[in-house]
Amino acid sequence: MYKVFCRTYQGVMKFASSFLPWREPELLMGENSLEKLPALIKGQGIESVLIVSDKGIISARLMDEFLQGLKEAGICFVVYDETVPNPTIDNIEEALKVYHQNKCMGLVAFGGGSPMDCAKGVAARAARPKKTIPQMKGVLKVMKKIPPLFAIPTTAGTGSEATLAAVVSNSETHEKYAIMDTALIPHYAVLDPVLTLNLPKHITSTTGMDALTHAVEAYIGRSNTKETIQFSKEAVTLIFENLYECYTNGTNLTARANMQRAAYLAGMAFTRAYVGYVHAIAHTLGGFYSIPHGLANAVILPYVLEYYGESAHKPLAELADLVGLGNQGDSDQIKAEAFINAIKDMNKKMDIPAKINGIQDSDLPVMVERALSEANPLYPVPKILFKGDMFHLYETIKA
Length: 399
Ligand SMILES: NC(=O)c1ccc[n+]([C@@H]2O[C@H](COP(=O)([O-])OP(=O)(O)OC[C@H]3O[C@@H](n4cnc5c(N)ncnc54)[C@H](O)[C@@H]3O)[C@@H](O)[C@H]2O)c1
Ligand SMILES: [Fe+2]
Known about the structure:
The protein is of the alpha/beta class and 399 residues long. The chain has helices spanning 2-17, 37-43, 55-59, 64-72, 89-101, 113-127, 201-220, 226-248, 253-273, 277-289, 293-308, 313-322, 332-349, 364-375, 387-397; strands spanning 26-29, 48-52, 76-80, 106-111, 138-139, 149-153, 165-170, 175-180, 188-191. A 6-stranded parallel sheet has the order 1-9-6-4-2-3, with helices on both faces. A 3-stranded mixed sheet has the order 5-8-7. The mean pLDDT is 97.
């Protein structure tokens, strides 16, 4: 009965989604494309911006030339660089204060998913000053135009530069959840591969696996459109062809640009077609133990795909064929297994562990409940899972 409820809910959401005001960010793309952003901001009549970032970006000196460009263009700016990985509501409130104190007219998100989501949170609060972040949890609670938002991703990655989601954490309750509203889609995104050239190896690998998880979870789900199928396929192909190269040869600009494109396309896929239980579980591990999002997804992905069993064989077999893993005449099951094994191999080659350390048994009941309430009834997963399934999956994942 509950399954029928979930499937009906997902069907209604899919139908309703086609009436939403979807938009795509306008892109500045290619080597050194960031140089063009100050003039673009100026051209919009924006005189002052809040730049949301983090300490890692500052110490990697990724922003220096951009700040110089803003100065030369006569744009006032203030930098908030306290965003933490798995950004918190406190981050958003602090940054919002800075935004108002400096009478900012726009937001620049400079960094990985954490600064981008923090900036989206600030944008949501600026648009809806009377609503708190917890009150905007879930789907379509913003519903108002946000200030101009320019996203500059420096990981490849979350795809947040393309999506309607802001994933935030409550540092007191350890809850991590998404605000999902088409109003939060950034207006502009800068895909400049130069920014990712010095991305450390373990961040390259884990954030790349996050992008793969987006593409795969969207593809095997039931709310695809013609476009999201195409986006997912292109992203999976690009990731299989370029992620390991980026990991071993970080300064390969073409491979970096391809991964940046893959992350963007995977974001475009899941913003319409959703993610699944991999993300629901990963969010609880981020909320409880601050486990980096990409690392959590990379570890969890093969276990959840295996657990789906037959319900995911066909789409996974298609992906196996796409990346040249399927042999003619093999059954869907064999091809799906080949695809899952390729994910495990990729993890292993990039030194990503097979299990997650530090999961406490006493936290499991709350994590299971939260993961289920994130995923059900919303995510159009191949197979609806229940409490017992989720306990089993957490047991499998934990070291
Ligand atoms: N909104 C969405 O659609 C969406 C999708 C997936 C994930 N997320 C969220 O995004 C967050 C994770 O983002 P992330 O994986 O991009 O990591 P992140 O933004 O947390 O960054 C991780 C670390 O990498 C460093 N870093 C980033 N770019 C760098 C660079 N070019 N050079 C050197 N260091 C660099 C940062 O300083 C930070 O220390 C999670 O909270 C996750 O839930 C959001
Ligand atoms: Fe993700």
